[in-house]
Design brief:
Aspartate Aminotransferase, domain 1; 387 residues; 2 domains; 3-stranded antiparallel beta sheet; Rossmann fold
Length: 387
C-alpha cells in the first residue's frame, strides 16, 4: 500500500522542543524503530532529547531474552546508558530509579494482545509515574493486529497476573496510547499523561498492509506469520504440546511426536480465514527438543476479523479428544508466575477454563461464543480512541 505511516516517535522529533521534557527515562527495546528504520533511542539522542537512563521490559533491551526469564540490569552497548530492568527484581521503576528524571518516555512496539507483557509493563510505569509525580509520554504505535476486538474479557478477581492484570479483552483493538488514557481514567491514576499519536494509521488495517518490514518484538514473534498465528496457538503454552519454539515458525506451527494424522476437517470447517495444514518439524529448544514432531502449520489469510480465541480453544479440544492418551495440561513457569500453575486461566482470563474443555462440542462452542461478547468493552473504550 502506498500510504505514509509515521510513529509517535517520528511526530515527537518533528514537532517537539526537547528542552520541554527535561531529563528523560526511556522505556524501550531494540524492536522500537522510527519509520525510517533508526532505533528509537539513537534517534532521540541525535535530536537532543536528554535521555539519562533506559528501562527494559520482558526479554530485555535486546528483545531476545528467553520467554519468562529474569532480566538483570545492565549498560546499553549502543549508547552507554544504564539499563534498569522492569522484568528482574522489580516490575516498576522505584523512587531511586526516577531520581533526577523529569519525564518518562515509553516507546515499545506491542502486538495487540492482552497476554503480551509489554502492555502490563506500561501499567506499572503508569502507576509509578502517578506515585512519584512524573510526566509520562507515550510515543504511540499502531496496533499491528488492527482495531478488531475479540474476547473473552478477563476476570480480575481470579485471573489477574502479569499476562493480564485488568479487565480487557484478549484482542483489545487499541494502541498502547489509547489504553494508557483509558487506564489513567478508569483506575483514577491521575498521571500527567501525554500521548504522541501516529500519523497515517487506519485501524481497519493490520500493519503488514503498509508493506513495512517486520521487526521481531520478542524471541518467538519473528515474522508477520508468527504474529498472526500467535492469538490462536498461544493457549498451547498451557499444554504438553510444542508451540513451535526452536523452529523457524514459532506459534505458526505446533505439534508433538504423537500428533500424527490429526483430522483437520472439524477445525478447518470453523473458518475460511485461516488455513491449517499437516506438517512435521524438529524443535531445537523447548518441549520435545531435537525430537521429530508431527502437527499443524497455521496460515492466516484474512487477518482483520479471524476468530482466534475460538480457533485456539477448539484446537486444544480437538487434540485432547483425538489424543486423550497423550494430551495433558502442563505448568508454564515464568518470572511473573513462578509456579506456572493455572496458565490457561491466566491466558484466557476465564476462571477454571480447563472445565470448558470437558463440555460437549455444542455446549463448548456456545460457551466460547458467549465469552467473546465485547459490546461493553467497545462502549467503555470508545472515548479514548485516537484513530
Amino acid at each position: 500500500m502506498n500510504i505514509h505511516l509515521s510513529f509517535g516517535i517520528d511526530q515527537l522529533i518533528q514537532h517537539s522542543n526537547p528542552a520541554q521534557y527535561g531529563r528523560i527515562g526511556l522505556v524501550t527495546n531494540d524492536a522500537a524503530y522510527t519509520a525510517m528504520g533508526q532505533q528509537s533511542r539513537l534517534a532521540l539522542l541525535e535530536a537532543d532529547f536528554s535521555i539519562q537512563k533506559l528501562f527494559s521490559p520482558e526479554h530485555g533491551l535486546s528483545a531476545k531474552g528467553p520467554d519468562g526469564a529474569f532480566i538483570p540490569n545492565g549498560v546499553d552497548s549502543l549508547t552507554a546508558l544504564p539499563i534498569v530492568s522492569l522484568y528482574g527484581e522489580k516490575l516498576a521503576p522505584n523512587s531511586t530509579d526516577l531520581t533526577n528524571i523529569d519525564t518518562v518516555f515509553f516507546d515499545i512496539p506491542d502486538i495487540g494482545l492482552r497476554y503480551y507483557t509489554y502492555l502490563w509493563t506500561l501499567t506499572h510505569v503508569l502507576e509509578s509515574c502517578a506515585a512519584h509525580q512524573k510526566k509520562l509520554v507515550i510515543l504511540d504505535r499502531p496496533n499491528p493486529l488492527s482495531g478488531s476486538i475479540e474476547g473473552p474479557m478477563l476476570e480480575e478477581n481470579n485471573c489477574s497476573s502479569f499476562i493480564g492484570r485488568w479487565n480487557i479483552p484478549v484482542r483489545h483493538g487499541c494502541t498502547l496510547g489509547e489504553l494508557a488514557m483509558f487506564f489513567n481514567a478508569d483506575k483514577n491514576l491521575q498521571v500527567d499523561l501525554q500521548v504522541v499519536s501516529c500519523k497515517g494509521w487506519n485501524r481497519n488495517l493490520i500493519l503488514r498492509d503498509y508493506g513495512m518490514p517486520f521487526q521481531p518484538t520478542s524471541p518467538a514473534i519473528v515474522s508477520w506469520e508468527c504474529m498472526l498465528a500467535y492469538p490462536i496457538t498461544a493457549y498451547l503454552e498451557a499444554t504438553n504440546l510444542s508451540d513451535g519454539r526452536g523452529t523457524n515458525a514459532p506459534f505458526a506451527q505446533i505439534g508433538a511426536p504423537w500428533l500424527q494424522g490429526f483430522d483437520l476437517s472439524k477445525l478447518q470447517g470453523l473458518t475460511e480465514d485461516v488455513v491449517f495444514e499437516n506438517c512435521q518439524f524438529v524443535p531445537s529448544e523447548g518441549k520435545f527438543m531435537n525430537e521429530v514432531c508431527y502437527g499443524l502449520k497455521i496460515r492466516v489469510k484474512k487477518a482483520q476479523h479471524y476468530p482466534s480465541t475460538l480457533l485456539g480453544l477448539c484446537l486444544i479440544k480437538l487434540i485432547k479428544a483425538q489424543y486423550s492418551a497423550y494430551f495433558s495440561w502442563k505448568p508454564y513457569p515464568t518470572r511473573a508466575n513462578p509456579t506456572g500453575l493455572r496458565h490457561l486461566d491466566l491466558l484466557t482470563g476465564i476462571y477454571q477454563s480447563e472445565r470448558l474443555l470437558e463440555l460437549t462440542w455444542v455446549d463448548f462452542l456456545s460457551q466460547i461464543k458467549d465469552f467473546t461478547q465485547i459490546t461493553e468493552w467497545q462502549r467503555k473504550v470508545s472515548p479514548y480512541l485516537l484513530y
